[in-house]
Amino acid sequence: MDKVLATVLLVVAAVVSVTLVINAVYPAITSSSGAMSSASARINERMRSQVEIIHASGELDSGGAWQDTNANGYFDVFIWVKNIGAESVVDVERNDIFLADDQMVWAWIPHAVYAAGGFPQWDYVIENGTEWTTATTLRIEISYESPLTSGEYRVKVLTPNGVSDDSYFSM
């Protein structure tokens, strides 16, 4: 009889132990599963997203001197970026635009909405559509109050989901 009682107590203790372990481990497993599927979705989105800078130039006349050719009162740098991925880029205003001079001194350029009237700032026009979907081109216009110096520049465009491209150009 003592052996039966000891066996029953050991079985009950084992069941309680297994229940405690499952209650402790199961939430961690489901939480990490959710994190893994979220990370997988983000990676999939980044793999399907791709942009390419196709051209960049300053607002210059035929002689290479700065001129306010569009009569907006500012000196502009134009960057054309094509969406060559399978995903649309939403929240275009949240793109990060960086510009570096020939000394590789980088400057972050805020969108006009976030610039609070300060310069430089950028705005955009979608050239061949109403949304920045596959095969559409975005024209970014970076406005300065005074002309930039002539030289080599590097521009980098970073989308909200982390996809980027950069390009060198000279003015």
Provide structural commentary.
With 171 residues, the protein is of the alpha+beta class. The protein has two domains: 1-48; 50-170, Immunoglobulins (Immunoglobulin-like, Sandwich), CATH 2.60.40. It is 30% helix and 32% strand. The chain contains two helices and eight strands; from the N terminus they run αββββαββββ. The strands form two sheets. Strands 1-2-6-5 form a four-stranded antiparallel sheet, with no helix packed on it. A four-stranded antiparallel sheet has the order 4-3-7-8, with no helix packed on it. Strand 3 (96-100) and strand 4 form a beta hairpin. The chain starts with a helix and ends with a strand. The mean pLDDT is 86.
Topology:
Blueprint: H1 2-48, E1 51-58, E2 75-83, E3 96-100, E4 106-109, H2 112-115, E5 121-126, E6 137-144, E7 152-158, E8 164-170
Percent strand equals 25-35%
The helix tally amounts to 2
Strand order within the widest beta sheet? 1-2-6-5
- Radius of gyration over C-alpha positions, nearest whole angstrom: 28 Å
Helical residues, percent? 25-40%
Number of strands: 8
Shape type: rod-shaped
CATH architecture group name of the largest domain = Sandwich
What is the class of the largest domain in the CATH system?
A: Mainly Beta
Q: What is the CATH homologous superfamily assignment of the largest domain?
A: Immunoglobulins
Mean pLDDT: 86
Give the end-to-end Cα distance, rounded to a whole number of Å. Answer: 97 Å
Q: Which class best fits the helix and strand makeup?
A: alpha+beta
Q: Please write the string of helix (H) and strand (E) elements.
A: HEEEEHEEEE
- What's the number of domains? 2
| Largest beta-sheet characterization | 4 strands, antiparallel
Poorly predicted runs: none
By CATH, the topology of the largest domain is Immunoglobulin-like
